[in-house]
Model the fold of this input.
Amino acid sequence: MPELSARRWESTDALTAETRRIVAATEAMMASTAHHLSEGIENLRLKAIVHELPDFLYVKDRDSRFVFANAITASCLGLKSAAEITGKRDFDLFDFETARRHFDIEQQIMATGEARIDMEETIALPGAAKPIYRLTSKIPLRNDRGEIVGLIGVSRDITERKLQEDLYRGQANLLEMIARNEPLPMILEALVLMIEAQLTGIDGSVLLLDGEGTRLYHGAAPNLPGGYSRLIDGVTIGPKVGSCGTAVWRGQTVIVEDVMSDPLWEDFRALVAPFGFRSCWSTPIATSKNNVLGTFALYSKEVRRPSEHETKLVALATHIAGIAIERKRVDDRIHFMAHHDDLTGLPNRAFLKERLANILDQARRNNRKVTVAYIDLDNFKDVNDGRGHAAGDEVLKEIAVRMVNSVRASDMVVRLGGDEFLVVLVHQSSHDAGIMRRLRELQKAINRPVHGEEGEFIVTSSIGVASFPFDGVTSEELLANADRAMYRAKELGRSTLQYHDGVGSTPVGMPLSEREELHQAITGNQLFLEYQPQVDVATGRITGLEALVRWNHPAKGRVPPVNFIPLAEETGLIVPLGLWVLNEACRQARRWQDMGLTPMTIAVNVSAKQFADPDFTAHVAEALERHGLQSHWLELEVTESVVMHDAERALAMMESLRALGVRLSIDDFGSGYSSLAALKTFPFDRLKMDRSLVEALPGDKTAVAIVSAVISLAQTLKLSVLAEGVETDAQLDFLRQARCEEAQGYRFSKPVSPDEIAALLKAGNL
Done:
């Protein structure tokens, strides 16, 4: 402007120099005024932008007093305007502990001159229902001379991000709980708490549908009033039974915005009113086949519909709950099948072993008697041979029903196998004189003709009886003596009942027993081993072999392991049988190496009785030395139940085996009883995933979730993972994508002879 002014006035000679100086000064002043005006406008614009920021921005002095804060900072701290915050300290705005924490950090920053960047803070803001999470940076503020005069703070709300991270962690934790087979109530409670933590003013609930599909029972509701949970426990489902009962009845989500006006709650308003709930949204929990298992419900004390976010969380919750409940039902079913007879539904021998020892222990403490009756159907073979096995099955089921109906609810009827049963009469007083009468009534019920589709069947029974504590103080003694008494009853003409006479000799004239046959097989060169390859999932390369015992019976031919391994376990012959397998596997492994084949790890199964043998480690060392096999080529497989029976002794045994240098693996993991406790406690090298999980892949969502979690957990614990029973390409593809390292099954090879293994090893890959 001065330059323009000079040019303008140079052409006017009438003006004096003084006048020109006055004009120039005036124009310079106007220019300065215009500059400051422009600067002020920019300041106002910057200030407006600062107040529009969604993040906290503030300045504090050396005493941690607010000098300036943007609008969002003041608003969130409960102030009406940014001006109100000037001069205040955190002690005026927060609880003492929070304010003290902020003050100490700020004073340290100003004392040291070192900024604190990206600090995660949890802050309870005034009026907020839940704390919020913020990511805060605080930087020292210096003047023109470099002196620290305060600090600048910038803070961003990361509550949503933290909630999302918590949600991911919660899902992973729930999958771990499912994989560890933790109790269903614990899993469901953790699930409800996870969802509630994502929401404000919401209480969650899980109700489980009973086996008959008619009533809903309490599953989990950690924050619902206990009185309300008890009132709805056992509610019958129907077309007008609140939100949950109706949701199950319809098989679809039911959203009730106001329970006080919705007709679905007409019969339940008086029930819910004292607790203040106004809306309830319930979604069925279903299996992958859309079979309803229960409901997941959210309660609010506001009249409203669920938000989109809440709806997504409910969908997640019902999916996880479905996996957990279905897994529990599968486990219950597996447990039932493992402990009950398929044909009659009666408890089986495995169930008897678990229960009888406890029954005797309780009787010992209470000075009670226990009577066991060993029952054999005399002429059942004639039914099978003459009328066929279908008719025989019909007879067995009818006899089983009669026996159950002839004893008290506290007694136990067990099918031992074939046509043999055991009845356990419990809770008897020491002077009970009615046992013989009850047993005679039981025998009469058994001996009545059975009327079936094939006509009438006459089946009688021979019963041997032994009583605790007179005829035995352990389960084994009691059963053995009842068995002897039963054979005595048969010798006396059948259809009789005989008490144990105290004589321990074996009845004469009996045919060669299955036990004796198996003993001859072990000592008489009738057993042999087959080997099933274990394969690297990624490359198809053979990485190891599992040794599997077989029996070539001289009269019956090849006997399946399922027919003689349980017998070996029951009779104690599993110990010499296991030692034979151990030595033969070591011998064969060394022979393959001597043939110049690539050395392979040989896996050998170890039974509970072998593992309980104090000399087992010595037996392993002797087998390795005898056959010249290096210890790291031998892997011993044990199930979790074996090591958990006596954890302290098992750990000592495993440490002594590891000292030899052999590998250890946990077998049948995921079959319904395994837990992470075994993986964390014991020094395993490998985890073998049970075939029951693998065979459900990849179509079963529950199996997919469990297998994925198991693989992830095993890798975290630095265990290699092998999947058993792989039979299809789809299973293999899934395992490969899930990063399972090894697999075994008919997809690669059935168990084969040593010569066939040699050929496979020469070929390299499967």
Remarks:
- The longest helix spans residues 17-52.
- The chain has a mean pLDDT of 84.
